[in-house]
Every structure is written in C-alpha cells, then in structure tokens.
Amino acid sequence: MLFKFEGNKIRIVTAPRSYITIKLIVGEYQQGFIETWKGGGLDIGELIIKQGFIVIPFKKNVEFKNIEAVMTLDINEKNVTFSLFDEGGEVIKTVRLDIYKVKRIHDEHSKKRERIQKNLLRNR
Asked: Which of 15, 75, 1, 14 minimizes the C-alpha distance to 45?
C-alpha cells in the first residue's frame, strides 16, 4: 500500500495518479511522536487500516548499552516460547510453556457462554 504521512493527514494511493486524503484526529500524546518524526527522530512503519481507525506505527533505532543477554519471546495460541542469548548470539536457555489447557478451558467457556446467550434470546 502506498501512502504519504503528512502529520495531521494521510494520503493513500487508490490507483495510479489517484488518491484519497484522510484527516487524522491527533491527541497531545500522539502529537509528540509526530513532532519527533518531523525532526527526523522516528520512521513510519506499515499502516494498519481498520474500520473506524488507522494505526500508524513509529519506528526508532536504538543502541543497546552494557548488554549481558538478549531475550526473544514468541507468543502463540497454544504455547509461549522464550530464549536467552549471550552477547555473541549463542543460546543460553530456551523455555517452552505449553498453554494448550488454558486455550481449551477458554474455548469451552466461550461455547457455554454462546449457548446461554442463544437460550436467553429465545426464552427471555
């Protein structure tokens, strides 16, 4: 998707040489990010467009200081896995937490709630 972020509005290309402009509602907190972006301190990531709102991710390069280890975290539907790495990139430890039972309980409660809501609609 081609777009141009202009601070208080976004211009989105809809076809060659054709675009729409969307005026943004910006709060004080968000305005700080926009000002930093205008000054060159942030980059813009890929837009997320949903019905009723647009998410504009700001990206910033950071330099790490005094690193002893780095942790990665992977959150999935049925497990959470994290790994610790040393300064050289060697794996110190990897842990996988199985959360399948939590998902199963959640799914069962969702189905129960759905059945109750259907019965309530029929038998008020």
From this structure: 1
Report pTM.
Answer: 0.51
Strands 53-55 and 70-75 come out as unpaired
Question: Taking the mean position of all CA atoms in its chain, how far away is CA 100?
Answer: 23
CA atoms within 13 A on the CB side of 40: 0
Domain boundaries, given as residue ranges, for the chain: 3-59, 70-122
Q: What's the rounded Cα separation, in Å, for the pair 3 and 74?
A: 30
pLDDT digits (tens, 9 = 90+) for 57-83: 999 888 878 888 889 999 988 899 999
